[in-house]
């Protein structure tokens, strides 16, 4: 096939993927034509990594501040090693719960900020993020 024919065929055909439906069947879904997929993917990896790093730094400071404010033993700093026998079970469990909730919220916020920033900057959803489905 010559290059002119190949280019005309690929420009007419849209990329598609199979989507699984709740009924157990599959349907063909046309994807938006997005140029420079590799560049978009690399850009998204950079954006999401940077927001994750910033989110982790903010979460660390916030968790330490919250722990200092609500610490049951009046400790200034966080429990760095919950397995350390110097800390009571109550303190270790509270520290673990505080960190778990803090990290979960930080991941959620950083992911949403990254997607929102990408949408504002490019006008499209990031690679791998699908359009919300209304039920």
Description:
This protein is mainly alpha-helical and 135 residues long. The protein has a domain at 36-122. Helix content is 58%, strand content 7%. The protein has a two-stranded antiparallel sheet with strand order 1-2. Strand 1 and strand 2 form a beta hairpin. Helix 2 (37-70) packs antiparallel against helix 3. It starts with a helix and ends in a 13-residue tail after the last helix. 8% of the residues are buried.
How is this structure best summarized?
The chain is mainly alpha-helical. The protein has a domain at 36-122. Helices cover 58% and strands 7% of the residues.
Strand and helix map with partners:
Elements: H1 3-12, E1 16-20, E2 26-30, H2 37-70, H3 89-122
Helix pairs in contact: 2-3
Look at the structure and give the mean pLDDT: 76
Number of helices: 3
Biggest sheet strand order reads: 1-2
Instruction: Report the biggest beta sheet as strand number plus sense, adding barrel if it closes.
Output: 2 strands, antiparallel
* Count of extended strands: 2
Rg from C-alpha positions?
23 Å
Beta-strand percentage? Answer: 5-15%
Give the SSE order as H and E letters.
Answer: HEEHH
In percent, how helical is the residue content? 55-70%
The 3D shape can be described as: elongated
Q: What low-confidence regions span 5 or more consecutive residues with pLDDT below 50?
A: 1-14
Could you tell me how far the N terminus lies from the C terminus, measured between alpha carbons in angstroms? 45 Å
How would you classify the helix and strand content by structural class? mainly alpha
Instruction: Kindly report the oligomeric state of this protein.
Output: single chain
